[in-house]
Amino acid sequence: SIIIAATRKREIKQKMKEKHLDNFVKGLKNGIPIALGYFAVAFTLGIQAKNAGITAFQSAVASFGLHASAGEYIAFTLFGANATIFVMVMMEVVANARYLLMSCALSQKIPADTPIWKRLIMGYFITDEIFGVSILTDGKLDPYYNFGMAAVASPAWVFGTVFGVVLGNFLPVS
Question: Are 161 and 46 in contact (CB under 8 A)?
Fold first, then answer.
């Protein structure tokens, strides 16, 4: 009886791992169009960063830390204009407040027993596009689906910004 229960528990765990892997792969696939769009937009963001005097490394750190095109355009523009930290922070709060609402909406779609660390990762990588795709999934949302989208979309965003800074150096000024 104990052996049967332990075996059954292992089978359930294995099925959950397989389900998570399937959802992660589905997220990777659905994240490819998002990544392509991110790369293009981030490239132009990189040019803006270069014009504001921000290095490729600094832009990579900013893009990985923020994941928000409007927020980064604002930050880079204000940085280039020598705005105060207070002004930058206030503008970021206003520009990115919508992510709080998106996170609240997605919290209703994930299983109640989802650990806090998974919730935090989902919240960190929430963007307009990932939210839009996630909110349209039927039934409960497996966090691994979002992790898959983020695994392909986030690097595209960061590298697009870096390439914009680096290759922006070769583009003519006017």
Answer: yes
* Closest C-alpha to 130, from 25, 54, 35, 24: 35
Helices (H), 82-142: 85-96, 98-107, 116-124, 128-135
pLDDT tens digit string along 68-121? 888 888 988 998 899 999 999 999 899 889 999 999 999 999 999 999 999 999
Contact between residue 122 and residue 67 where contact means Cβ atoms under 8 Å apart: no
The CA distance from 42 to 47, in Å, is 9
CB 128, CB 41: distance < 8 Å? no
Cα three-residue angle 24-30-31, rounded to 5 degrees = 85
pTM for the structure as a whole: 0.85
Query: Are 141 and 106 in contact, with CB atoms under 8 Å apart?
Result: yes
Q: Cα–Cα distance between 72 and 161 in angstroms, integer? A: 10
